[in-house]
Amino acid sequence: MPGVIKINPAVYEDNRDALAAGWNEALRLIMEDMKFNPVFEVTPEQKAFFKNTAYATNSLALKRTLVARIATLDTSVSPTPEQEQETLRLLGLVSEMLGAQHPDTAVVAKMAESVQAGGARGEVRAAPETTPEAAPEAAPEAAPEAAPEAAPELAQAANAGGDVRKPHDYTKALQMFLEDLPVHERFTPVAEQRKEDRPNKDGSLPWTVGYGTTILADGTKIKQGDTMDRRTALTRAEEIVVKNLIPLGEKNVAGWFDLDPRLQAAALNTGYNVGPRFFRDIRGGSPRMLKRLRSGENAAKVFYDEIPTWLTTNKDALRGIIARRKYIIERRVLPVLNEQKARP
């Protein structure tokens, strides 16, 4: 996405304000270019703050501008933990897009550190004539591939004393998930019906595009003729993980927040392949795995034992799934086990 953003520093108190405004605009353009759709709820106070702007009737644009402001530490809005997490997700994708050698990568990393430290928090400066009660309701959005369980708050109570856990940083786990996904998840640029996929209730095969995507964030089902490039496919896969799978891990997997990022990535890869039931303590889910974790067993050993058991009776998919499980165990789980064994 080549281009130049010109900011007139004369309208700001100093060059730092102009630089922040430049990054704000750049991030919004990047989100538009990569079709990054933030997944969170806008607070009533934030709706009130933007009541008399063009964002009031454009939910996607509002969410993107919130992310850009959070990233540039603009305290005009008070971000929720979920909004901070989505901002960290964007900055991780931007860092990956730039690459380690790009001079702006260090700036993006510093932004992420500041966001995680709460640099964008502050009281909402609502317009004088606006009150939260008068804020218009945002137009309802179509539901994405949401899990039946309600996603828990990212800020978890740490103990009975009232300490609150800071928003968890999933940057490393998500980066590893995105590295691993293309290895065994076949990329489909044009929608097709794959023999290895699970049939619909009527027996027909779903239309799939990208990395196993059957439905978009707005709830639209993939249909014949739909297309998707690799970058958009990875973004959509990450949306599914952040919106659907991570909340289930937080809710159902004992010790989830303390897991090594490699183990989180292994669980997310398996869950992306088999579906949310991997994180559920139900028939057809992972009750044995979850029970072992709740009993205090070593998570690396539990994943080492349990992840390879998730296979399929579909002959067209079996060989690939066996290879996928083996890859995840050897690349993500086994190194953690070996490091634990090597400790004195």
What would your notes on this structure say?
This protein has 344 residues and is mostly helical. The protein folds into two domains: 9-134, no CATH class; 171-184 and 231-342, no CATH class. Helices cover 47% and strands 2% of the residues. It is built from eleven helices and two strands, in the order ααααααββααααα. It has helices spanning 15-33, 44-49, 59-71, 81-98, 105-116, 171-184, 230-252, 261-274, 287-294, 299-306, 315-342; strands at residues 188-192, 208-210. It has a two-stranded antiparallel ribbon with strand order 1-2. The longest helix is centred in the C-terminal third of the chain and has 28 residues, at 315-342. Residues 9-14 and 123-165 have low confidence and may be disordered.
Could you give a quick summary of the protein structure above?
It contains 11 helices and 2 strands; from the N terminus they run ααααααββααααα. By secondary structure, the protein is mostly helical.
Q: What's the story with the biggest beta sheet? A: 2 strands, antiparallel
Radius of gyration: 21 Å
* Whole-number count of domains: 2
Question: How many strands?
Answer: 2
Number of helices: 11
- Rounded to the nearest angstrom, the distance between the terminal CA atoms is 50 Å
Strand order of the largest sheet: 1-2
- Determine the structural class based on helices, strands and strand pairing: mainly alpha
Beta-strand percent range: under 5%
Averaging pLDDT over every residue, what do you get?
A: 81
- The 3D shape can be described as globular
How helix-rich are the residues, as a percent range?
40-55%
Poorly predicted segments: 9-14, 123-165
